Amino acid sequence: MNVSKITNKIKNIKITGRGIYFFSFIMYFVISFLRTSTYTEVVSSNQLVRITYLIALLLIFKVYFFDQQTVKSFLINSLVILIGVVIWRSTHAIDIFLYMLFVISARDINYHALIEFYLKIGILMLVFMVISSGLGIIKDLVFIRNGVRRHSLGILYPTDFAAHAFFLVLAYCYVYFRKLDWKAYLSFILLAVFLTVETQARLDIISILLTIPVIWIAKRASEGKVFSKFMASFYWMIAPILAYITVLAAYFYNHSKPYIFADKIVSGRLALSHTAFQKYGVSVFGNLVQEHGFGGNAGSKVFYQSGMGGKYFFIDSSFMRLMIIYGVITFVAVIAVMTIIGLKSVLTSDYRLAAIMVMLAISCVIEQHLLDMSYDPFLIALFASEITGHDRHENHDLATLEV
């Protein structure tokens, strides 16, 4: 191809709001994924974070110059952005601000196409991390618990690797919802076996296995099966119920037998959440919380020096992170978003997003990944166009990535 043809192609590139959004999403997803890996010892995490500032500007540019605006939507978007900036500055966590921007700028975005991108790139990234760690390019951090070796396979911590796998399973269920069969469910079971052998991340493994009946009921409900429709009609309620139970249990935690038993089931997360309540309390716009986890090279050194005790302090539950770190406004807003997405899915008799919100809520009790785009892109569905299956072919222009 000669230079003139290349020049003409560049001149003919059409910049669209959808193109800006997909470019920003893919760029941010890859950056966020790298930040969860031991590649952070090769590529500076701070440099990756700086790139997210550019992504934030691109999304704000899309909102104000490409999205159709009324006076009402202009004021609401501006208020959300302002609140996002305040929370970002209060918590020193830009990820919450980026996630808010991705949600409000998702209007007219083909959500099905977006999750397809997430699924394909996510699988490639996870396999890339496994191969990189296997070849010794990056570290495979190994943690020993009860004499069993737990591999992180290039990710910062074994449970984080399993969490990546869990969210990719949810994405697969969303994209191929109509085609799910026993072969897909068997592959989830085999994945759970692999994760058991390599990571020993039992709570994430249970979540993957629990996905099978939850999605199966949702699929049958979408096909009009009466009992399944009845069961799935309650899916939208799970997020607020589990959020309420999690926060109350953490607040009132004591050393009575029921609480100790519950804390043991969730691997000590309940006691740590109670400590977070005592130490930081609750604020409107969030707190700057000092955490000391076992992830990464520095965390693994702490683990081998002090074991599970020592300086370890980390709020694993996403529900508790929303309340303690990001503040009451964010907590209420995110639970409302999860509830609305689930309810809309039930009312349209599709049920796939309702089922995913169920599994997301269960994950929020034990995992911290709700507002991390490298794991969870599902809250973007609030304003995005949920074009799936047959509809996607009739609206092919929405799935086309124009830049």
Word description of this protein:
- It is a single chain.
- The protein has helices at residues 3-11, 17-35, 45-65, 71-91, 94-104, 111-134, 158-175, 182-198, 202-222, 226-232, 238-251, 257-265, 269-280, 296-306, 318-326, 328-347, 352-366, 389-394, 396-399, and strands spanning 142-145, 148-151.
- The chain has 403 residues and is mostly helical.
- The protein has one domain.
- It has a two-stranded antiparallel sheet with strand order 1-2.
- Residues 389-403 have low confidence and may be disordered.
N-to-C series of helices and strands? HHHHHHEEHHHHHHHHHHHHH
What's the quaternary structure here? Answer: single chain
Strand content: under 5%
Number of individual domains: 1
- Counting DSSP E segments of at least 2 residues, the number of strands comes to 2
- Radius of gyration from the CA trace? 21 Å
Helicity, in percent?
A: 55-70%
How would you classify the helix and strand content by structural class? mainly alpha
What is the average per-residue confidence, as pLDDT, rounded to a whole number?
Answer: 89
* Measured distance between first and last alpha carbons: 21 Å
For the biggest β-sheet, the strand order reads: 1-2
Protein traits:
about 400 residues; mainly alpha; two-stranded antiparallel ribbon; 19 helices; 2 strands; globular; disordered C terminus; membrane; transmembrane
